Amino acid sequence: MAPIAITPEPSRSATPQLKTPTTAWSPTEDNVSSLTLAGIEHALPSKNASSAGQAPLDASLLQIELTQSPRAVPAPESPEVAAQKTCTDHMITARWTLEHGWHAPELKPYGAFSIMPTASVLHYATECFEGLKLYRGFDGKLRLFRISRNCQRMRKSAARIALPDFEPKELEKLIIRLCAQDGEKWLPKERPGSFLYVRPTCIATDEALGVQRPQEALLYVILACFPDMTKSKSAPAPPALNGASNGTKKAPSSGLKLLASTEDSIRAWPGGFGYAKVGANYGPSLVAQGEARARGFDQVLWLFGSESYVTEAGASNFFVVWRNKTTGRLELVTAPLEERIILEGVTRASVLELTRSRLSEAMGDVEALDVVEKRFTMADVVSAYREGRLVEAFAAGTAFFIAPVSLIHFRGEDLVVPTEEGESGVYTRVVKEWLVNIMYGKETHEWGVVVDEVA
Ligand SMILES: *Cc1c(COP(=O)(O)O)cnc(C)c1O
């Protein structure tokens, strides 16, 4: 294949790039790995090239076997829901082999798999996943939120760890079919405002210990009962406030309390796989997460490099609102995607798009905001805090949704983040309301994809 010259995207920030090659780079057979954006695009086969006669993933071939032993739906906020173990009656599975490609997908009773102890995923973390929610709207309809984005991201994540390619639209059809099957029973119409968690997953199942590209894989989709994290009480307050805030200040009782990562602990790095939703990103983060919880914090705020660039909070994207020192204007700021060290959240993209279109001018009493994706450091956050320019902060992702941040602990100092309206700041509340309205059908919007239930 002839290499195509790719002009690197111009950097949006004025500060120098993190370590990137200084010479012009274009993908060739020799230098392409999955390390860069160009590399990733290169590694994704073109849509029609279902390589070497392999069968493509095809939702129209779905085989259906309904359960003979229906499961009980747990009550909302019950211990079963909190335990995150209960799944609905059915699941989707699709097998892939190198010789054949994708076999006919199945919708079948939820249950255990059998894989060999030598299966690739158990040794080499050949796994990727997605997370989205199925919402029961206040108008009685079921909706998925921007599902096409999750399916496209899953394709990219799969490519990063040598799992087989598929047409995202086919995965989308399979997810919708499963939601249509189990939605009616598991999200009763009498419980508007509830949701199920949708977990598409792909694993390599080759029974061979050789370290090589997988030759067998299993794609599956399950629907799990999941607690409403926006209602759950956060971790106990940290014992005492340290640093600049003197002893007279009380630790906030609500909102996420974040513990900034230490210099010797990194979630993701340029050339790594932080942009991909692969299991390998999460296991190694659990030690830091456990330490944070043991010390009374909810999540780790992941920093990068000696400059302490702010990247993400737990498995959510992180936003701050501050007043720009030079222009005096309010800004909504989040880390950029270029370095590929953060996950490109669907929630993140939606917050950015909605804020750009709805708050470029003042909305009643709510002051307009500039929306900025750029690198920023903890030093920037600390100076905004000390100078009274820090307005609010929140985490954004499917699991925790839009969660106000009330405290950041960084290098021995507690920054008490303002939450102007008590539990949250104004912008956190406004952004959350916009999204809730779309997800639960209070506002008709193309992002809310209606699922027709199977009668
Ligand atoms: C899933 C995830 C997010 C949030 O993505 P959404 O699409 O908004 O749910 C953010 N960061 C990490 C590391 C994640 O795994």
UniProtKB/TrEMBL annotation:
One of the Pfam families matching this protein, by short name: Aminotran_4
- Residue numbers spanned by region Disordered: 1-29
Organism name: Neohortaea acidophila
Q: Which UniProt keywords apply?
A: Amino-acid biosynthesis, Aminotransferase, Branched-chain amino acid biosynthesis, Pyridoxal phosphate, Transferase
Instruction: Please state what the protein is called.
Output: Branched-chain-amino-acid aminotransferase
Sites of the modification N6-(pyridoxal phosphate)lysine?
K277
What Enzyme Commission number(s) does the record list for this chain? 2.6.1.42
Might you name a Gene Ontology BP term for this protein?
L-valine biosynthetic process
UniProt cofactor(s): pyridoxal 5'-phosphate
